[in-house]
Amino acid sequence: MEKLKVAVLGLGTVGSGVPLILKEHQEKISLVTGVEIVVEQALVRDEAEKVDLAKHYDIQLTTDYQEILSNPEIQVVVELIGQIEPAKTYIIQALESGKHVVTANKDLLALHGKELVETANKHQRDLYYEAAVAGGIPILRTIANSLAADNITCVRGILNGTTNYMLTKMANEGWSYEQALDEAQALGFAESDPTNDVDGIDAAYKVAILTQFAFGMSIDLADIDKKGIRGMSSDDIQMAQQLGYIVKLLGSSKKTNGSVSAEVGPVLVPADHPLASVQNEMNAVYVQSSGVRESMYYGPGAGAKPTATSVVSDIITVAKNIRLGISGHMFNSYASETVLTKDEDIESKYYFSVNVEDKVGQFLKLTQIITEAGASIDQLIQQKSDGKQARIVAITHLMTKAQMAEVAKQINRVSEFELVASYQVWTD
Amino acid sequence: MEKLKVAVLGLGTVGSGVPLILKEHQEKISLVTGVEIVVEQALVRDEAEKVDLAKHYDIQLTTDYQEILSNPEIQVVVELIGQIEPAKTYIIQALESGKHVVTANKDLLALHGKELVETANKHQRDLYYEAAVAGGIPILRTIANSLAADNITCVRGILNGTTNYMLTKMANEGWSYEQALDEAQALGFAESDPTNDVDGIDAAYKVAILTQFAFGMSIDLADIDKKGIRGMSSDDIQMAQQLGYIVKLLGSSKKTNGSVSAEVGPVLVPADHPLASVQNEMNAVYVQSSGVRESMYYGPGAGAKPTATSVVSDIITVAKNIRLGISGHMFNSYASETVLTKDEDIESKYYFSVNVEDKVGQFLKLTQIITEAGASIDQLIQQKSDGKQARIVAITHLMTKAQMAEVAKQINRVSEFELVASYQVWTD
């Protein structure tokens, strides 16, 4: 059987999974593609490092990318180094050398996707990156193919496994933020510097890519409002639960009258909503559209084997395209002018959690602030007081993001108020 | 822009949705396919019937299928008549006349899929039927494309919206089976003869198609064990809830050592499992595989707009294939010899619910029956007695289907025992 030869850049956990999966499922893959896909070469930092793995799968190791670029037998380059450079240069050089590219690099796609897609297009090569968003969930291909007939209005998802694990433990076990972070780090979910996870940056990269697929719009990372879960109070999680909600960190992208707004932040999701049942490190993407109305895609967001499986499914697509002679078509062919929604046109319900000095008239004061911003309150609850301080929690009716900002500003102006949290409440 | 002309057979609720969605999303569809897709002709039973609709979308109505077959401008036939005949003949004639076919006909695909696929293959035409399984959920395309790199071990799903609606109401509102059925009929979910839904036949069709995609195996409908929810006791649903389970009607297909077993039946699903949160008429398919491990696909299983959207996504695929010159490739190219798993090799935990005469020694007797079958009990609970009769509920450890059948047989042999239910309990 004919061979399709692949080079893998980076033999880390995901990279090592690629030859494993190609071997394990060789029979089925050959049946579907008509070729045998093999990892021929791998780029590593140090040739001494992966000798056993290379021997086992008969992979030539190299520390010199030129050896891969100049090898005419290599038809596909799989980039799994991560970060921006040298990954970006390597991908561009691969495309310019006539090789197809598969990558799982969300940072790169979110920040430089347009340039990479244009380069692939120019050289009529394939560029696939299903694993960049929500690891094992085939959400990009689903949006590009199955929802092509549909008009997506909103995409919201649990896009970061680390923070979902932390929030699950805080909700189910009553852990504090610090406990949850320690445990996530001990389990290897969170890096020693958890910034990208807990501040919502990782999720924002994925939101940028989802926005390209769902709405055909390229959104700058700076235009995605990022609110993480850093330092989140477990009191608020418990409070939300009492009110019938589970707090989830959601990445969302929404279309309103042809414009788009994207953000990452904690959201109070109704306890009986499918997203609320997504536990621990699992991810899920919930899509609203005018045809199908609602659909959800659930699976592991990371992990060596799920991510490697997703990478291999992209390699299979490349293999099929080569065989059919249809390489070079865009993964996502939906493109539309990028227009951002104004804060005055973004609507949601909000949850405000405020520490107040425990004295008469605080309910009235908070109500006034919200009313003066033109919004109104649906639920208002005071939690137990320690005699000096009490916590007031308010859930509003629909209000705009601009009004929310105004309310937050006014709360912060009152010396005896401390705004602990202002989260979105799920709205359909 | 070039036009791709389509004929729709049957302008019922789904059929009427097709021109609607093609019109509503025309811009996006043209962007993705490079052509304008239009419904040119429609086959109806009575030309007087759909005059307004036809006028609105500029569709030629006909009662004579030959007019469509002999129209060289029609490139795609969309079959939405349902049932076996004349749908089957129409599809075969369309393929033989060189037209591509899209259908949502699950009965036909489950019973005659092999013949239809062979006909399409012979004439190098496209045959797509994404909407045949779980309406708005793109599960077939996901299995065929995104999970091609994976080794699926088990597919289980809530595949029938009517029964899921009924079970949701029985669980959440305490309705009886009869109440739930009445309401499902009043809402138009259930037919006046609900047999196909409540006896698990509808779900079994879908299981047959899922088995083809997940394992490449053609399973006869007769080889799918069908246990429905007809007459289900709400006591058992409440009992399951107390034990931490939600009862769902699942269609399942499982691979064990290269053989496959498929069945439809009520299953006790742990309350915190994602399938347990699938409420009302929604569907979901939960896939276990060696690479991605677990993933779930959730959405509407029926309904005019979701189903029509799915049909249009198939038409878009046909349009893309025509444009790329790659028509005639199989929707599902995974094929493997069909081998059925023996009942001795099918393992599950089971839930037995038994009405007993309320006297000493009944626990012992039931325990003996289960032990003698070579199985063992995990939980054993007696519900309140009315003085004469009590109900005993047992959940077993893993046992084989053959052992389960033996236990059921022995229980039925005891004159003071009445076996009310024997359901599977979810096992990973």
From TrEMBL, chains A, B:
E.C. numbers: 1.1.1.3
Pfam families, sorted: ACT (PF01842), Homoserine_dh (PF00742), NAD_binding_3 (PF03447)
UniProt keyword annotations, A-Z: Amino-acid biosynthesis, Metal-binding, Methionine biosynthesis, NAD, NADP, Oxidoreductase, Sodium, Threonine biosynthesis
Protein residues bound to NADPH: K106
Binding, L-homoserine: E191
Highest rank taxon of the organism: Bacteria
Cofactor requirements of the protein: a metal cation
MF GO annotations: homoserine dehydrogenase activity; metal ion binding; NADP binding
One GO BP annotation of this record: threonine biosynthetic process
Catalytic residues identified in the record: K206 (proton donor)
Domain ACT span(s) in chain numbering: 351-425
Reactions that this protein is recorded to catalyse: L-homoserine + NADP(+) = L-aspartate 4-semialdehyde + NADPH + H(+)
Residues that, per the record, bind NADP(+): L9, G10, L11, G12, T13, V14, G15, S16
Pathway assigned to this chain's UniProt record: Amino-acid biosynthesis; L-threonine biosynthesis; L-threonine from L-aspartate: step 3/5; Amino-acid biosynthesis; L-methionine biosynthesis via de novo pathway; L-homoserine from L-aspartate: step 3/3
NCBIfam families per the UniProt record, alphabetical: PRK06349.1
Family named by the database record: Belongs to the homoserine dehydrogenase family.
Full protein name: Homoserine dehydrogenase
Organism: Vagococcus allomyrinae
